[in-house]
Amino acid sequence: MKLRAPFALPLLLAAALPLSRARAQDAIDRLDMQAHAALDANQPETAIKDWTELLKLDPKNANAFFNRAAAYEELTADEPNQAAMAADDDKALADYTSAIQLNPDDPDALEHRARIYAQKIGGEGAYAENQRKAIADYEAAYTLRTKGMDDPKGWLTSTAKPDDDAGNIARWNLVIKLDPKDPQAYLNRALVHEHAADFASAAADYGEAARLDPGDVTTLVKQASDFFTANEYEKGIAGYTAALRLDPANVEALTQRAHIYVRRMMNDDFGSPIFEEDLAKAVADNEELLKIRMRDGKNPKEWLEKEAAVSTLTTPVLACRDMIVKLDPKDDKAYINRAAAYDSNGAYADAAADYSVAIRANPQDAGLYIERGGDFVQTGDYDKAIADFNEAFRLKPASDDDSAKARTGRALGYKG
Length: 416
Hints:
This protein is mainly alpha-helical. The protein has 22 helices and no strands. 77% of the residues lie in helices and 0% in strands.
C-alpha cells in the first residue's frame, strides 16, 4: 500500500512558530512517524490509533486521512468475517472522502476510493450504485493524471492498467470522449461490459462500433450475441441477419440465429403458427450450415445420414432429414425419418403429413398408421386418429407388438 510520507515543517519555519504550536507540530510529526513504523511492522490497528490522535491535533491533515484509510484497508485482511471487512471498508471510504474534500485534485485518493467502491458487494441496486461511483472516481483521477499531457489518449490506452471493470470502463469512457469516432474504443469498452456481465451495454457499444465501421461482420455478430445473452431475441436475430447480409456463409451467425429460434420456440404456444414458423427458420439455418460443411462431399445423402445419426440435437437432425427428402423426394424411408424428426421437435402436423406420403407408398404397413394416428391424437384430430388405429388393427389383428400399439392408440383416440 502506497502511503504518504511523514509530514514535517521546514526547520526555519518550525523555529518561527510559537512554542505551543511548535510542540503541537512535534507531536504531529512524532505520531505520523510512529504510525508509519507501526504499519511497516504490520500493525495497522496501532497505526490507526496514532493517525486518529494526529487528526485530533490537525483535523485538516489530508495526508493523515489518506494514510489512515490505507491502514483500514490493510486491516481488512485480518478480519474474521465479511461484516467486519465491510465495516473497515466503510471507514476507509470515509477517510478517503475526507482527504478528497481537503484536496480535490488528489488522483491517488480518488483511485483508492474508486477501488473500494468497485469491490463492494450488496443488493443489485447497491452494487450498481457503487459501480457508478467507482467509475466516476476513476474518471476524475485519470482526468487529473492526463491533464497537460501531449497524448492523453495514448496514456489511457496503454499506461493505465486498472485491475477492475469500473476502472477499465472509466478509461475507455475518457478515450471515447477524446475520440468519439474510434470504433476500437467502443469494441474495447464492450469487452469490459461483457466481463462485467452487462450485455445490454456491451451490445450498445458493438452497435456504435458497427455504425462507425459498417463492414465489420465480427462486430455485428458480437453485438447480436450479447443481445441473445440478454434475452433480447428480436435484436439478436436482427444483428445476425445484418451480419449474414454481409457474409452469407458466416457459421457463427447461422448457428446462433438458429439457437435463438429454438430458444424462442420454448416460449411459443406449442404447435401454434409462430411455433411452426420458428421451427422452420431454425431448420433453414441448420440446412445452410450443413450446405457449408458438405460442399466438398462426394455423396451428400450418405454424409447427411451420418450427420443425423451422430447429432444429439433435434433441430439439426430435422435439418438433415429435410435435406435428404429434397435430395431424393421419391425415397419413402426419407419421409418416415423426417416424420420421426418432426415428432421429436413437436411438429406433429408436419409429421402426420410425412407419414401420409409414406403410407401411400406402403399402404399395408400397420406401423405407419399407428405413428400417424399418434400424431393425430397430438393435434386433436381424434376421428382421424381412431380411423388410423382401426386400420392398423385390421391389417394386424393378431396380438403382436403392432396390434398392441394399435389397441392402445385406439383407446387414446376414443378417450380424446
